[in-house]
């Protein structure tokens, strides 16, 4: 019976995630990941034949982390939709390297809004929105797309150090966009 591997695949993925988090996804390579694990590059390459496959696994872990972050709303949050939107922007503030990895690295799985809105990963967010807004799923998706474009724009500008985060102003803008999107969908 061969000895149990000391460095597991999950450990390699976690180390790649941390490299992306601290220094950016462009720095994920066998050397940086093995240094983080305090091992040679052999265990990294054993679990991942290519660095591209390792980056894709780290991307998936980052996407899961992002979804959990979005859905972690304070109990006092009255409006789930606004809370998710603010969390999206906060993620760009607090985790700019991960934000850029998710949305500006070319690893995103969906290439269009239609693919994004129908992706399995978005189901928890859309379900929470649908329940709160008391709308059908198609109306919910329309509101989501409007908010997503607005929120993503804000977050991208902030993640790339072109705008300072001001929660009060952003909340005000987000509330206006949200009310407008809901009103437009209800008029249809």
In short:
This protein is an all-alpha fold.
Give a structural overview.
- Helix 6 (96-104) crosses helix 9 (137-159).
- The chain is elongated and about 65 Å long.
- It starts with 8 loop residues before the first helix and ends with a helix.
- The model has no long low-confidence stretch (mean pLDDT 88).
- The longest helix is centred in the C-terminal third of the chain and has 23 residues, at 137-159.
- It is built from 10 helices and no strands.
- The chain has helices at residues 9-23, 30-37, 42-47, 51-71, 80-94, 96-104, 113-117, 123-133, 137-159, 167-187.
- With 188 residues, it is an all-alpha fold.
Write the layout of secondary structure elements.
Elements: H1 9-23, H2 30-37, H3 42-47, H4 51-71, H5 80-94, H6 96-104, H7 113-117, H8 123-133, H9 137-159, H10 167-187
Helix pairs in contact: 1-2, 1-4, 1-6, 4-5, 4-6, 5-6, 5-9, 5-10, 6-9, 8-9, 9-10
């Amino acid at each position: 019976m061969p000895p149990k591997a000391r460095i597991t695949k999950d450990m390699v993925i976690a180390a790649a995630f941390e490299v992306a988090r601290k220094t950016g996804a462009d720095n994920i390579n066998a050397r940086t990941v093995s240094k983080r694990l305090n091992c040679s590059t052999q265990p990294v390459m054993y679990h991942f034949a290519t660095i591209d496959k390792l980056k894709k696994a780290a991307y998936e872990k980052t996407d899961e982390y992002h979804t959990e972050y979005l859905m972690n709303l304070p109990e006092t949050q009255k409006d789930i939709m606004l809370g998710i939107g603010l969390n999206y922007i906060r993620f760009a503030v607090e985790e700019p390297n991960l934000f850029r990895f998710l949305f500006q690295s070319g690893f995103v799985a969906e290439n269009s809004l239609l693919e994004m809105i129908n992706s399995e990963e978005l189901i928890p967010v859309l379900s929470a929105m649908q329940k709160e807004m008391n709308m059908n799923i198609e109306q919910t998706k329309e509101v989501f797309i409007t908010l997503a474009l607005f929120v993503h724009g804000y977050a991208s500008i902030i993640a790339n150090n072109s705008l300072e985060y001001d929660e009060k102003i952003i909340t005000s803008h987000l509330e206006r966009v949200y009310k407008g999107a809901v009103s437009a969908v209800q008029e249809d």
